[in-house]
DNA sequence: GCACGCTGTGCCGTGTGATGGCACGGAGGT
DNA sequence: ACCTCCGTGCCATCACACGGCACAGCGTGC
């Protein structure tokens, strides 16, 4: 079903560069204009895109995607929000809610710190399992080998045995660390939220590396562990 | 491109009833199993759905939809969140962020009150323009006639002239009211966020009808108007 | 144990409809 | 007046989506 693949590619491209027209899309995707236009027509008919502003030749995506996304992770999100708010209040730092997906964790929701120097990640971003606090929190409970261990910074754990030891430490401690392993100036602690069949999500406290000395890290670790446990219980 | 329409219908149905298998989908959509399965295969290939849990015969949607939704309204959402938080802190009530889309407003984000009796609407829900505070706030600035004025409760404005007068009042006051016009026990005030070409969003304070007597309504109205103005300015 | 309902999967002849090259009209720009 | 970009529409060709059907696996119950 090549045309479905094409239409979905068109949809993604529209989302990424809206508002955008037929010609530019065709050039960007390497598809004939006719094909792109037929896709646009169909997507419009299906209610996924609409003409942007007054112009009928530029397109943008509708809230259809939001309605799809809503029904997915949103029960989790609703349960997590109060817990995340309390956690931010106690730490004063940015809180992330992520879920495992394939060989990565995906950012579902975040609450930012008030402080001027802060971590800002876009919703939907994918972080590596072995080089993020949330990823390691999840990985520790997945009990399966990670894929290839890409190095991002000098502290990224790229040795499988070292990673295994690290994950054992995560299980013993209850929370996972990130010491500049994905971006050298970002520190975090994270704890997994467990469902019946393994980890379903993960909560984290993320700060600039300069704001997480060891004593604070231990305290944040305790708080995030407790928050994850609260969320786990509230999910039944 | 009927197959694209079919595939998108399959995607929506998967999102709505996940985890779900081929047979049930086919029955629900009134499509042959073969067609549904081909769609599932294609959607999986495109990364929009994945097998649920360990089973390879049940499907669920991935975070692809979230990534699409993210790039759409999310600049707005990011700018709005701090304003919404302050507004909730000042009112102690539920705050909604909605955007106009077609003949409705769509709920993009919300912050709930702490109080046990509260309004809870799902993200993505569509409310009528003429029978919701957010809708009327937007409609007042759109300066175009609304569609058919469906009645929802005894107080819903169904007369075009009455609606026009109401909207003039909204422009004069700066904020729109809802006095049980969509659901009889819900009250709200809302103010539009303006872009270069008209309203791009709307903020509201929503409470049970019993918690918004006239003096409080006026106060909330002032606060929501101010918040909307702040957001308008921060969007440049 | 056999029959039956259900699941998901695979095959294949038919003919629909997607493809993509091309031409046209319009809007700016030079 | 030219040239270039835009979006749109047309149409012959043939790939491939369609959907009926058959089959394998599984659990249930006479």
UniProtKB/TrEMBL annotation, chains A, B:
Superkingdom as given in the UniProt entry: Bacteria
Ranges where the HTH iclR-type domain occurs: 1-63
Record GO terms (molecular function): DNA binding; DNA-binding transcription factor activity
Keywords assigned: DNA-binding, Transcription, Transcription regulation
GO terms under biological process: negative regulation of DNA-templated transcription
SMART domains per the UniProt record, alphabetical: HTH_ICLR (SM00346)
Domain IclR-ED: 64-236
Record flagged with keyword Methyltransferase: no
Descriptive protein name: IclR family transcriptional regulator
Organism encoding this protein: Nonomuraea fuscirosea
């Amino acid at each position: 079903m090549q045309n479905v693949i094409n239409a979905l590619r068109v949809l993604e491209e529209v989302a990424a560069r809206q508002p955008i027209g037929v010609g530019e899309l065709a050039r960007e995707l390497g598809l004939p204009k006719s094909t792109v236009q037929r896709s646009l027509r169909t997507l419009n008919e299906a209610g996924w895109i609409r003409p942007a502003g007054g112009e009928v030749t530029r397109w943008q995506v509708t809230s259809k995607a939001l309605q799809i996304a809503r029904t997915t992770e949103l029960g989790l999100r609703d349960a997590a929000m109060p817990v995340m708010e309390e956690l931010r209040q106690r730490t004063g730092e940015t809180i992330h809610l992520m879920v495992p997906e394939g060989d990565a964790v995906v950012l579902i929701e975040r609450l930012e710190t008030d402080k001027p120097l802060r971590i800002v990640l876009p919703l939907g971003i994918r972080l590596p399992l072995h080089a993020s606090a949330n990823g390691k929190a999840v990985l520790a409970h997945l009990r399966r080998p990670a894929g290839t261990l890409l190095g991002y910074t000098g502290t990224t754990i790229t040795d499988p045995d070292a990673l295994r030891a690290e994950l054992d430490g995560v299980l013993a401690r209850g929370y996972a660390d990130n010491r500049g392993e994905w971006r050298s100036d970002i520190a975090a602690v994270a704890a997994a939220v467990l469902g019946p069949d393994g980890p379903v999500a993960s909560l984290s406290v993320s700060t600039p590396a300069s704001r997480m000395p060891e004593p604070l890290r231990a305290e944040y670790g305790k708080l995030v562990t407790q928050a994850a446990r609260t969320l786990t219980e509230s999910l039944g």
